[in-house]
Amino acid sequence: MNSIETSGCAIHFNNACYEHISQFLTTTTPSKIFVLVDENTHLHCLPYFLGQIGTSLPIEIIEIDAGEQHKNIETCLGVWEALTELGADKKSLMINLGGGVITDIGGFIASTYKRGIPYINVPTSLLAMVDASVGGKTGVDLGGLKNQIGVINSGAMVLVDTAFLSTLPEAQMRSGLAEMLKHGLIQDASHWQVFEALEEITKSDFDTHIRQSILIKKAVVDEDPYEKGLRKILNFGHTIGHAIETHALNHPDKPELLHGEAIAIGMVVEAYISQQELGLDQAVVKEIKERIVKIFGHPKIDQNDFNAIIALLKHDKKNEHGQINFVLLQAIGKPQIDCHAGTELIINALSFYNA
């Protein structure tokens, strides 16, 4: 697959990844390379990756605990301290090898250490490939609230090697599909329809669909890198989805929800709100719900949790002037930003998802 040039950095695929990083290392000669991993990517991805890059430059491995619950300032402090103890300087390079948590937190750590050192994202999950590692958003959670602290700063390059997907459990693959479905719903009806018969998609086809999903996001980010307008459409499903995800994280007794699973629920809920507020066709809302339930199953939201989830919406980072902002759909491929919905409508939409 051909590389994608964005306004921030280049995205390379599969075998070409290692040609480009080798050239980058030869040209820039970092003083030291730091590879950030969690325990899963340390075990399943790091040996393969190190075998591919083949450099004699000094490499240090820094491991953090896996999981969204560790995407916080405390983890950053530990990594900043490790970088200092291991002699990182302004010419050091950080490589973030992992899923969305690693690329989010690793990009933030690199962007702020010594006021910024270069970094490269090597996403190993489908979610990170099509979303988290593209567009320069970095950051951490604060007190259980999603991505409250961060900066927009693109790395030197992104390496998308779909060979890493063979290491993922099925749930993690589904989690990444949520963002691909979202890209279709907000920008490209044909991309949405691709997933109508998911079981018939070959690996070669899937690689092509990953690239197409990245191209959809790239086009949006290139036009609006700092989310002043158009880039907001990428938040479809995320206002409700992040609140549901945060509520689950804050209550360990609740069933665990991966990011993509929560966003999938959010898309169904926000599709219903779109019907009520913008007149989205009822048949489209039904289609969105049926396809998402077919892929993700139908975990119910306890009605007793509705008010707590709505309370979390007030802290969403996309809010402005005290208003909760939604991205809604007029039709597939026709999103509308900065929409609002009352509490009663949100409750009805959550009930619609449960039904």
Structural summary, described in words:
- With 355 residues, this protein is α/β, with parallel strands linked by helices.
- The chain has 2 domains: 4-168, Rossmann fold (3-Layer(aba) Sandwich), CATH 3.40.50; 172-197 and 225-354, Up-down Bundle (Dehydroquinate synthase-like, alpha domain).
- 49% of the residues lie in helices and 15% in strands.
- The chain has 14 helices and 11 strands.
- The chain has helices spanning 15-28, 39-44, 46-53, 73-85, 100-112, 126-132, 170-187, 189-193, 203-223, 238-250, 259-278, 282-296, 306-313, 343-354; strands spanning 4-5, 10-13, 33-38, 59-64, 93-98, 119-123, 140-142, 145-149, 157-160, 326-331, 334-339.
- A 7-stranded mixed sheet has the order 1-2-9-6-5-3-4, with helices on both faces. It has a two-stranded antiparallel sheet with strand order 7-8.
- Helix 5 (100-112) crosses helix 6, helix 6 (126-132) runs parallel beside helix 7 (170-187) and helix 7 (170-187) packs across helix 9.
- The chain is globular.
- The termini are far apart.
- The model has no long low-confidence stretch (mean pLDDT 94).
